[in-house]
Write a structure and sequence with these properties.
With 333 residues, the chain is of the alpha/beta class. The chain has one domain: TIM Barrel (Alpha-Beta Barrel). The protein contains 13 helices and nine strands.
């Protein structure tokens, strides 16, 4: 099984944004050492609990401090930007870090309505235009506009030896079909969706149109998971993330375990917490492995991408370490 990391660069209640970003870099280094396939970092805006508003900046930092692991955006929010600029940025990264760069593309606003207005004009219109934006981005990445096109005489320089790989990220059949019609690999956000993900992935496979000869559909499924030495330890560590999510992920500071235990839940919040737990994987290494294997089998996924948020950076890296040890070491027996 291939495993990867999705990092939202959360800020814990005892951290600064600088601390959180440095811990993100350390997580990428740990993922590389543990054998994870790729590390993607998310884009969020105006949220005090999340540190990364510019994945392309962090990817330069992370690329310079790692050697092999694939790195990318999870996702760059394309409706905010012109495809030419996105192609330039990721071609630059692919030139600096050859054969390692992914462009995860999303269409969410990534912040409040006010932040969205501050970032871009006509965001909703650009969301409707996403299919055209994706096609334009492909043309810039492949440097293949037709001779009569208005952009035929320009390139998104520098042109790397190996182009960055575009992925489409989503949680709906609409995004899955957009990926399929463009011959793109697709990442389904299982941890963000209440929809029938298995049916969505099947629709993607059925509609897939290869851009190149012998190209096949490729699927990553992203899940929220926390692993501990014991089930009880994992549940305790997960309490911080669950309370923070209940408050809103943009809330200032992932609370400590002690702070989370002191939070007084209403009956409505208890129901919300139970629903969140059902969409997560929490447990000891054996339990987490079993649930990840079930997820991979159900989705027929090529890869599982894990999002782990904890109060302590040590607990987060330990969670990824326990999962890697349980899966990778036993696969090699």
């Amino acid at each position: 099984m291939r495993l990867s990391i999705l990092d939202q660069s959360p800020i814990s209640s005892n951290q600064t944004a600088n601390d959180a970003l440095i811990e993100s870099m350390k997580l990428a280094q740990a993922g590389e050492a543990l054998g994870y396939t790729r590390y993607w970092i998310a884009e969020h805006h105006g949220l005090p609990g999340l540190a990364c508003s510019a994945p392309e900046v962090m990817l330069s930092y992370i690329g310079a401090n790692t050697n092999r692991i694939r790195i990318g955006s999870g996702a760059v929010l394309l409706p905010h930007y012109r495809p030419y600029k996105v192609a330039e940025v990721f071609n630059m990264l692919a030139t600096l870090f050859p054969y390692r760069i992914d462009i995860g593309i999303g269409r969410a606003p990534g912040g409040s309505a006010e932040v969205t207005n501050a970032l871009s004009d006509n965001f909703l219109q650009k969301v409707w235009e996403l299919p055209a934006l994706v096609k334009e981005l492909f043309h810039f990445l492949e440097d293949d506009f037709s001779a009569d096109h208005e952009y035929s005489k320009i390139s998104a320089s520098p042109i790397p030896e190996n182009s960055p790989v575009p992925w489409l990220l989503g949680t709906s059949e609409k995004s899955a079909l957009l990926a399929a019609r463009n011959g793109m690999p697709y990442t389904f956000g299982h941890f963000m969706s209440d929809d029938d993900g298995i049916a969505i992935i099947q629709a993607y496979r059925d509609a897939f149109r290869p851009r190149k000869e012998a190209q096949a559909p490729q699927v990553i499924v992203t899940v929220s998971a926390i692993c501990g030495e014991t089930t009880e330890q994992a549940e305790e560590i997960a309490e911080s993330f669950l309370i923070w999510s209940l408050q809103g992920e943009g809330h200032q500071g992932v609370p400590s375990i002690k702070e989370a235990k002191q939070y007084k839940l209403t009956e409505k919040e208890k129901d919300s917490l139970n629903k969140m737990r059902q969409n997560m994987i929490i447990g000891n290494p054996h339990e987490v492995k079993r649930k990840l294997m079930e997820l991979q089998t159900n989705y027929q996924a090529d890869e599982i991408m894990i999002n782990t948020i904890t109060y302590s950076p040590k607990d987060r890296i330990q969670s990824y370490r326990l999962i890697a040890k349980e899966i990778f070491s036993k696969e090699n027996l």
